[in-house]
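Forgive a beginner's question, but might I ask you for the amino acids of a protein and the tokens describing how it folds?
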Amino acid sequence: MGGQARTRIVIMNTLHLTDSQQDIKTAAAVIRDGGLVAMPTETVYGLAANALDGAAVARIFKAKGRPMDNPLIVHIADISDIERLSLTADLPEKARLLAKAFWPGPLTIIMKKGAVIPDEVSAGLDTVAIRLPSHPAARALITESGCPLAAPSANTSGKPSPTTAQHVIDDMEGKIEAVIDGGACDVGVESTVITVATDTPRILRPGIVTREEIEAVIGAVEVDRAVLNKLENNEKAASPGMKYKHYAPRAKVILVRSADKRYTDFVNRCYRRDGNCAAMCYAEDVDRIVAPTVSLGSKNDLKQQAQALFDALRAVDTIEGVETVYAHCPTTQGVGMALYNRLIRAAAFQVIDLPDKTIIGLSGPTGAGKSEVAEILRNLGAGVVYADLAARKAVEEPEVKAALCAAFGNVLNADHSLNRSLVARIAFGSKKNLKLLNSITHPRIVEIMLEMAADCKEDIVIFDAPQLFEARADVFCDKIISVLSTREKRLDRLVRRDNLRREEVELRMSAQYDDRFFIDHSDRIIDNNGTVEELHACVKEVYGRLTDGTE
């Protein structure tokens, strides 16, 4: 039953199983013949093969495009199957307690494997993951097939897991023999995975069965570091979904951790700036967002969010023109841990932490007097984050220096610090080089600026950033102030301040935005063509408006 046979759809009505017994028999025959059948479970649709047939299991990896070092879960129809089929070398007491409390249901238990489990299932580990699903169609198929079923999610590896038969068809058409249509899955995220093969049981993948519920049955459990963090390259995955980027739509997913209003304001600024983003948000956020939205449901209903998650991730790619989706970051408590675990992998671990501050972007063309304004604001009581300081930190980080060397050749000094003057000469030598430099450094500079802002004790924080707009740091700002001055005044300041030739200054000035750009993209313009006293008075008036909320 191998090859590229066209998928047959076996219709399965979960409410009237007796009406579909022949369909189950047909699907079971496919399994016994070494084929693949997508089956509904209460969590997500699984891509099933005979778990005791290594060759059949290998076909799962091929159909999904899944790395072979990612272990699979063995599905059984009755707890007695574990010992009857010698699936495990030992059934620990804690496994029995968990099975009694949560099976059938969305909990997978890892224990020492028996000799009958092929390496294709366990990815070469000495353990096996076992689950007893509650969905009647899944259990009927296991029983009729006469064997346990290895069944990861029935999607292309890395894409959102399928929660309907149509999702499976979209990914697996022509790659497998059959799909049993059991309707939409009730739970919507994969099972909780816990290992009892360690001294202290450890959760390797969170799900709808929470840590708190498990501890009420067997006592203290640990949560594996990889649940909320990225595995290092040399770490071996002990459970499905731990190591690789998972669940991702074509659009880039970025998690945004912040208070509700700050999240919606940020998404709105991104959309107004670029027009190519969407929000994956709570129902309560929708009316406050101007960008296209995909709702996960109510903020306070984590189970509803779990059920909607993979549908929402797939829905993002149906919105025309969307390149980036900003997901409202969930809590990591209770079922929220399962949501966070899936979303952090869909986002390839990219998270934006928005500090609970009022951030004011301060920019303007070089030589206009922006630094003077920043100093006045600092003396008035504002916190100031300097982009130049963040840049100096960023370019000394190993990853950034490596990227700069890859782009421009060896640009390091003898002590391995960055030769900043050399990089500047190369970058300003062409627009292409400048764009490349910015693409390497700006993302990390902005991350550092946000970290510095979070550490400020002041509620109002100024982003002193000459390249505020080029770095896209403007989307993090509640207001933007630009400082302008005449071209001649700027030239004179820069020649005196930086001891540069007039031609060098003009070259730098020509690479920047003109005054019209700053006027069009700022909430307030400070004119720095007058006296020092006039500048101080203007800045003091602006700061007063910022503190009383009238600016």
Q: What stands out?
A: Residues 1-19 have pLDDT under 50 and may be disordered. Residues 210 and 334 are 5 Å apart (CA to CA).
